[in-house]
Design brief:
This protein folds into 2 domains: 2-151, 3-Layer(aba) Sandwich (Alpha/beta knot); 166-221, tRNA(m1g37)methyltransferase, domain 2 (Trp Operon Repressor, Chain A), CATH 1.10.1270. Helix content is 33%, strand content 18%. The chain is an alpha/beta fold. The chain has 9 helices and 9 strands.
């Protein structure tokens, strides 16, 4: 899978994308992630990528020319799935991440200031995605969230496929609680069933815990009650 990320703060992204599972997947050639500096396509020698908004108002708006130039400089950009990170986009969830993981090439645009000239969305963007109902200083943090949620679903990135299939949201429920050694810590004990070695009972307990935890913490994830 290839991902191209366009930003005015490439250093914000480079180190996190070199760490952990993503970094290892890049080293193995499973992921090809490239970070592009939008200012390389600035409209002047000062590196300007923004200007005052038409109609007045606070803040600055990112100009369209650098974005078009940056995207069009990427090999295969016409075939890529081009995404703008924005609070106005559709909500990122596990289903969206799973769909994006099937794409061979993603281009992510990380805006700043008061936003990006609307003509960028009209002329370049195929998808707009939000990571939640709040506003960030820019799209970089959102891009990191999207990249991690998506790339870990790409074959070969996570070694044990079962850990993906059983985790929170994959089956529409939150994950069950997990424990490791020691069996008792500060008076808190691991549930006996997990020490029993009885695999059927363990699976039953985990399923019950998923249902209960979801009902307690995220009842909105449960299907509506069936009519009597």
């Amino acid at each position: 899978m290839r991902l191209d990320v366009i930003t005015i703060f490439p250093h914000y992204l480079e180190q996190p994308l070199a760490e952990s599972l993503i970094g290892k997947a890049r080293e193995k050639g499973i992921l090809d992630i490239r970070v592009h500096d939008l200012r390389a396509h600035a409209v002047d020698t000062y590196g300007s990528v923004d200007d005052e908004p038409y109609g007045g108002g606070a803040g600055m708006v990112m100009r369209p020319e650098p974005w078009f130039a940056a995207v069009e400089s990427i090999d295969g950009w016409k075939q890529a799935h081009r995404i703008l990170l924005t609070p106005a986009g559709r909500r990122l969830d596990q289903q969206v991440a799973s769909t994006l993981a099937t794409q061979s090439h993603l281009i992510l645009l990380c805006g700043r200031y008061e936003g990006i000239d609307e003509r960028v969305s009209e002329g370049l963007i195929l998808d707009e995605i939000s990571i939640g109902d709040y506003v960030l200083a820019g799209g970089e943090a959102a891009a990191l969230v999207l990249i991690e949620a998506t790339t870990r679903l790409v074959d070969g990135v996570v070694k044990e496929r079962e850990s993906i299939e059983r985790e929170s949201f994959s089956a529409g429920l939150l994950d069950y609680p997990v424990y490791t050694r020691p069996a008792e810590f500060r008076g808190m004990k691991v549930p006996d069933v997990l020490l029993s070695g009885h695999h059927a009972e363990i699976e039953r307990w985990r399923s019950e815990q998923q249902q209960q935890r979801t009902a307690d913490r995220r009842p909105d994830l449960l299907p509506p009650d069936l009519p009597d």
